[in-house]
Amino acid sequence: MEFPKNFYWGAATSSYQVEGCNNNADWWQWEPRAGKEPSGDACRHYELYETDFDLVKGLNHNAHRLSIEWSRIEPQEGLFSDEAVNHYVKVIKALRARGIEPMVTLHHFTNPIWFAASGGWVNKRCISRFVRYCEFVVRALGTDVRYWFTINEPTVYFSHAYLWGMWPPQKRSFLQMMTVYRHLNEAHVKAYQRIHQIYQELNWKKPAVGIAHHMQAVAACDTRLVNRFAAALRAQLYNLQLLDYLARNKSLDFIGVNYYSRHLVHAHSWWIGDLLMETCKDNHHLLRTNSLGWGIYPEGLLQVLVSLKKYNVPVLISENGICTDDDNQRWEFIQSHLENVHLAIQQGVPVIGYLYWSLMDNFEWAYGFRPRFGLIEIDYKTAHRTVRESAKKFGEICKKNNLCVDRHL
Description:
The chain is α/β, with parallel strands linked by helices. It has helices at residues 15-18, 26-34, 45-58, 70-73, 82-97, 113-117, 126-141, 154-162, 174-201, 225-248, 272-277, 299-306, 327-346, 389-400; strands spanning 8-12, 63-67, 101-107, 147-152, 208-220, 254-265, 315-319, 351-357, 376-379, 384-387. Helix 7 (126-141) packs parallel to helix 9 (174-201), helix 8 runs antiparallel to helix 9 (174-201) and helix 13 (327-346) packs parallel to helix 14 (389-400).
C-alpha cells in the first residue's frame, strides 16, 4: 500500500503532558484540589527534548506535532517570558536540524492561571488575549514553522470543562458551554487571520493554519428510524458543525483529525436528550477495547475521512493511537488504521500525513499516568526511555512510505 510522495509520518505530544513542572497552568493548580494524580515531572521532556528527538529521527519520522505551553510563555498577563520562548526556539530548531517538520499547536487544553482566574474562555476578552499570545509565539518561531494548529479538540475541551464538569474549571452549564464554544470558534478565526497577516508582513512563505478536531465514527445501533436520524444528527453536530463554521469563515488551510473510537447511537425515544446523548449499553456490536475501554474501530477512520471531502482542503491525521500494555495490540492498531487511511486516499481524500498519539507514554489528563499510549515506554521513576517494538515497525513504514500488513511483531 503505497502512500503519496512527501507524506508526513510521525507522532504527537503536548507540552503539559510531557514537559513536567508546568506550575503556571490551571491544571497544575487543579490536580491536588480535585484529588487527581499530579502531573509533576511528567516525562521531563522540557530538559530531555534533544534525546527524544534523536529517538524520533532514529524512527524515521519526518514530522512531529508538539504544543507550546501558554502558561510558560505568558506567566502573568502581558508579561512574556524570554526564557520560555527561547526554549521553544531551540526545540523547533532541534527538530529542523534533524530534518523533522515541526507542527505546532498553540492551545492544548491548558491555560495560564491568571487567564483561568479572570474567567477563562467565558470572559469575552479571551479572544484578544489568545490572539496576542499567538502573535508573540508566531513572530518568535515562524521562520521555522509552516504548520500551525490553533486549538486542540475544542469540542472535547468545552464539553469536559463546561458541560460534564470533569476538567477545570469543572462547570456544568449549558449556557457557559455554548459561550466557550462560540469564543473558541472566534478565537481560531482571529488567530488564523493574524498568523497569515504576520507571514505576509514579514514576507515569509505562506503558512498552513488549521485545527486539531476530535472526530468519532457515528453509527446507529439498529435500523430503527429514530436511531438512524439520531446518528445523522450527531455526526453533523459533533463532527461537522464546527468545521462548517470555520470553512464558512475561510479559516481552514487543512483539517487535523484526532480519531480514536466509535460512538454507537441507541436513542430510546424522539426526546432531544435521547437523540443527542443516549449510547448503546446492551453490548451490541462488541469491539475489542483499549485499556480505557474505548472500542477499537479502524473502519471508522475511513468513515470520518470521507466525510471531509466536501471541504476540499488537505487532511492530516493529527492524533490516532491506543493505550495498551500489549504492544502487539498497538502494532495491529497502527496497521489496521493505516489500511483505512490508504483506502480514504484511494477514495479521493487528500490525506497528507499520519501522526501517532503519542510519541511517548505521558500524563493522560484526569486518567493520570496509567494509560500507556506511547511508541516509547517511559519509566516515570528514572525517566528512562525504551523504544517499543511497535515503534520500530512503524518506523519501517515511515522509511518506506508504504504498508505491508504483518499482524505480528
